[in-house]
């Protein structure tokens, strides 16, 4: 395939290497359906899409937005991004050596394990809905904790779906509320990820052929492309038209999707393509970092990395002088010089933060060790699942924000650590206080 791409396309050797590696990861991901929840492959697949495929499309389609376009030559960017992604993958993979067979052992007896946990599943779903109801009324200090609790209803659905009772009605209700919430807020990240995670659960329960996997993948990509084609326009309406209620917004959204279905040529117009590539491409921010550091601002030399670990892992009573970890807004200004407007959400990503701290070679090595750090927790969960098989269903809960390719290290670690703490609290409270097994 590499020879064909080089012979019959204008792609450079680096672009071909990036495309082939991305195809390899996609192939591994497809084959892994039914074998567990390979969150490490999900992480690297999304990284390939946003750090490699998006930038290649930007370089080779001629769609290079004056602000959101790539800011450095192709060779300069890809010679950094591709090794960084490959080493990130190796880091995510290496700690899992020797435990790859564990999901199969766990899944063989999963139905029997869930036989006495139906009550716990309903408790998880009830806790999730209670948190969803209470969150708008709660003080800001509790918002993130309650947000984590809202995600428990999806874990409860997984329990019920793989239980012999297989209560699909609850599944429809939970995911129906997720769709309505996504449409009401015009935010689709959680909807896409939980749907993706459910496909893993579905393939565990059902024997799915490779043909069906490929067809589902194709339909899924088409639906995501359609969503991207209307999302910007829909958000402008949903966030500005205060007269629309949740059902009114849903009607507007589905009318836009229907228009794309009956007029597919709109999916291929230049404006839609430019918007889709721009949304997919995280590389433009990374190239901004490469242009800005160290020419205007010096390398951070590990400052934001050590701050991320200390601020996330050490409680304030152990480190009273620790700084509040800077988020995407501060990182964007520090490493790219871009001052974000209020309400705009952007971040420099792990790859951008690696370059901003250590430069090209150091940034590539940084990605390897970050991959190992993320994967160690996954290894721990897989080993624990031998004794407590339902732990495997909590992998999406713990990695829900970690899979995002655009977040920085502090944001990712903060979510991973706090989600782990909430999981431990829930297991303890359900078992010791409610006397319910999960």
Structure description:
- There is one protein chain.
- The protein has 438 residues and is mainly alpha-helical.
- 71% of the residues lie in helices and 0% in strands.
- The protein has 20 helices and no strands.
- The longest helix is centred in the last third of the chain and has 39 residues, at 349-387.
- The radius of gyration is 22 Å and the shape is globular.
- The mean pLDDT is 85.
Any chance you could write out the topology, listing elements then pairs?
Elements: H1 2-8, H2 13-32, H3 39-60, H4 74-93, H5 102-108, H6 110-113, H7 118-134, H8 143-150, H9 152-162, H10 168-185, H11 189-205, H12 210-240, H13 246-262, H14 270-280, H15 283-292, H16 303-313, H17 328-336, H18 349-387, H19 395-399, H20 409-433
| Average pLDDT | 85
Percent strand equals under 5%
Q: Class by helix and strand content?
A: mainly alpha
The oligomerization state is single chain
Count of DSSP strands:
0
Any idea what the radius of gyration is?
A: 22 Å
Low-pLDDT segments: none
Provide the helix percentage: over 70%
Separation, N- and C-terminal Cα atoms: 47 Å
Number of helices: 20
Major sheet size, sense and barrel closure: none
Overall morphology? globular
Helix and strand sequence: HHHHHHHHHHHHHHHHHHHH
């Amino acid at each position: 395939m590499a020879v064909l791409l080089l012979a019959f396309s204008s792609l450079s050797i680096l672009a071909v290497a990036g495309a082939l590696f991305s195809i390899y990861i996609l192939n591994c991901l497809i084959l892994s359906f039914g074998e567990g929840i390979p969150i490490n492959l999900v992480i690297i697949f999304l990284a390939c899409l946003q750090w490699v495929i998006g930038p290649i499309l930007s370089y080779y389609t001629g769609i290079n937005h004056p602000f959101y376009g790539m800011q450095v030559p192709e060779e300069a960017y890809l010679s950094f991004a591709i090794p960084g992604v490959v080493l990130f993958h190796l880091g995510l993979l290496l700690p899992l050596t020797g435990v790859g067979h564990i999901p199969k052992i766990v899944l063989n007896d999963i139905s029997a394990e869930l036989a006495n946990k139906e009550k716990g599943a309903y408790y998880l779903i009830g806790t999730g809905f209670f948190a969803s109801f209470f969150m708008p009324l709660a003080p800001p200090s509790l918002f993130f904790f309650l947000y984590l609790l809202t995600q428990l209803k999806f874990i409860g659905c997984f329990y019920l779906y793989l239980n012999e009772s297989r209560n699909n009605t609850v599944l429809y209700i939970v995911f129906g509320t997720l769709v309505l919430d996504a449409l009401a807020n015009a935010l689709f990240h959680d909807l896409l990820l939980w749907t993706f995670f459910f496909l893993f659960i579905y393939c565990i329960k059902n024997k799915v052929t490779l043909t069906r996997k490929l067809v589902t993948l194709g339909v899924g990509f088409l639906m995501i492309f359609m969503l991207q084609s209307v999302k910007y326009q829909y958000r402008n309406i949903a966030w500005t038209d205060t007269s629309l209620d949740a059902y009114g917004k849903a009607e507007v959204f589905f009318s836009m999707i229907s228009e794309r279905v009956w007029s597919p040529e709109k999916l291929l117009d230049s404006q839609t393509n430019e918007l889709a590539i721009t949304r997919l491409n995280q590389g433009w921010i990374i190239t901004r970092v490469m242009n800005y550091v160290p020419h205007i601002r010096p390398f951070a030399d590990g400052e934001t990395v050590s701050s991320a670990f200390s601020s996330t892992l050490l409680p304030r009573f152990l480190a009273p002088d620790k700084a509040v970890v800077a988020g995407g807004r501060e990182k964007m200004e520090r490493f790219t010089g871009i001052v974000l407007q209020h309400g705009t959400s952007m971040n420099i990503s792990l790859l951008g933060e690696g370059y901003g701290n250590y430069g090209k070679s150091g940034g590539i090595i940084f990605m390897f060790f970050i991959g190992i750090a993320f994967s160690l927790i996954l290894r721990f969960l897989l080993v624990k699942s031998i004794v407590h098989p339902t732990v495997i269903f909590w992998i999406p809960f713990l990695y829900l924000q970690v899979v995002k390719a655009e977040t920085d290290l502090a944001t990712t670690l903060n979510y991973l650590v706090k989600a782990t703490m909430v999981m431990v609290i829930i297991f303890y409270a359900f078992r010791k206080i409610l006397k319910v097994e999960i």
